[in-house]
Amino acid sequence: MPLSYAEREQFYEGLVVRARRQGIACAITSGMACVAYGVAQATQDCDLLCAPDAAGKFLSLLGEASLHGQLPSYRGHLTPPLDARWLRGGWTSHFVWEAEGAEAYLDIFGVAPRGSSPWEMEIQGFYAGPHTVAEMKRTNRGKDWPFVTALGAQMLEAKDARGWLHIYDENLLRTFGEVSPVPAELLKRRPILELAVANDSRLHAALHTEVQFWHELDRARLRIYEKAVRPYLTAVKKAQVPAGAALATQHEIRVRCAENHLPTNPLHDYGIEQMIAEAREALGEMVQPSTLAWLPYVCEQFRVGTA
What we know:
The chain is an alpha+beta fold. The protein has helices at 5-21, 30-36, 55-62, 84-88, 130-136, 145-157, 170-179, 184-189, 192-197, 203-239, 247-261, 266-270, 272-284, and strands spanning 26-29, 46-50, 73-74, 92-97, 104-109. The protein has a domain at 5-122: Beta Polymerase, domain 2, CATH 3.30.460. The protein is globular and about 60 Å long. The relative contact order is 0.12.
């Protein structure tokens, strides 16, 4: 029988409770966090942030985390090992519980993609804070963007000025611009806010360009990681992990493959500035050139975890 959302929520929140009892900093993020904050209705998977230095302890916890009598396995050949070296470099480890008819999936991040500040400072209950979740949701998938805006609006209503960074609805930007001041430091990070406050007619085109910029940045980031993972994928396939192997055994094999074939931090190796420049260049071929002047400052959203 398929798991209900309440059962999934209870299971993953239970993992967080057990992890924190062991001193592991962790928090549920992305879709389940959006449900918890009231801006989404349901999601199938769980994304979880875990302090990279606690990767080993969290792996041990997972190895004992039974769901309907099933223990988890690494999911697919692409999945990097749950190891501090790769978590710090922006990789994500994927796990699955393959209980018949009640599968469950868990993706573990060490660094919040596009996070501009340490996620550990933003935790609310079981969940990453709205600011972290909103930054992680700036993907190249159109379905994610209403959640970003909804979280930004909640933040502004709660007197958290950083909500200004997350609103991508033109009418809502203009409405807030009439009643809420924008701190100077946020205007520097997101120049388009000047257009919103001034009720400038250029806002519509500039906002479209900004969203497309984030799409291109996400595509560029994914291309870098997808290219870096190919030798590792081949190595894991050749390793032929025994069917039904314990999670610890699966992990040992993946670590050996990763040590020889998977760079720990491909984004740092590639160059953040180069990635951003390439995203801007791709963007310039599809938008009004004048709107490029209003693009946000994004370097800091790719530096956390890349030093």
